[in-house]
From TrEMBL:
PROSITE patterns for the chain: ALDOKETO_REDUCTASE_1, ALDOKETO_REDUCTASE_2, ALDOKETO_REDUCTASE_3
InterPro entries assigned: AKR (IPR020471), AKR5G (IPR044500), Aldo/ket_reductase_CS (IPR018170), NAD(P)_OxRdtase_dom_sf (IPR036812), NADP_OxRdtase_dom (IPR023210)
Record protein name field: Aldo/keto reductase
Domain NADP-dependent oxidoreductase: from-to ranges: 31-266
Domain of life assignment: Bacteria
Amino acid sequence: MAKHLQDTTTLHNGIQMPWFGLGVFKVEEGEELVHAVKSAIKQGYRSIDTAAIYDNEKSVGQGIHEAIVETRIAREDLFITSKVWNADLGYESTLAAYETSLNKLGLDYLDLYLIHWPVEGKYTESWRALETLYKEGRVKAIGVSNFQIHHIEKLMKTAAIKPMVNQVELHPQLTQNELISFCKEHGIQVEAWSPLMQGQLLDHPVLQEIANKHNKSIAQIILRWDLQHGIVTIPKSTKEHRIIENSAVFDFELSKEDIARIDGLNQNHRVGPDPDNFDF
């Protein structure tokens, strides 16, 4: 179990991935994002998650580089993730998209590259491109995002390398138990996006009661719940005080009763698109 902000899980290829990171979904390019990335790294975060479609890789890269200069942390100690967007799926176009992301970020390699959505008829060819990048040593780990069990099963019929990570929407009202069990069985690390349900759970009475018991915020309770379930989590924030608060989840532990109560909040409710029914 994660006991420190820089603790890691070992992916099935031996790569160490931080349990906790900063997400930057819907954060626009600009100084606010540069400062957020720098603040996170200075506070001890080692994982930053972005994507081509977020259109903010330049600012993420700037924040990373400024943090490296100011803190003298080694690039090798950071874990940087990006994702190939739907419009770029396909073998050659995925390879080109990877180069574009690297250039925008100003990096020589990524630690993790993901297929963002399971677009039918396209993601298997993109996976072949990710395998090429991985075999060439240009990315440390490869994975998928928003893949359901049947998508992974289809992928693995032709894949030479199984995904190392599956990043999915996951929070107390969408616990994805079957998917988590499947991924654990196959050695695929589950990572939660939108762990706080885009703020919709921050006044939930059950979560508030548990938060009061531990003298923590509801956000901290949810993030701790992720970690105790063995799920990597990447909450989004641009505010330094929130970045610090979100990471203060390693000095307490939820009881089995707490976890059972939070598990019981599941409604299979999504705030994002359904991976089996999306159109973009």
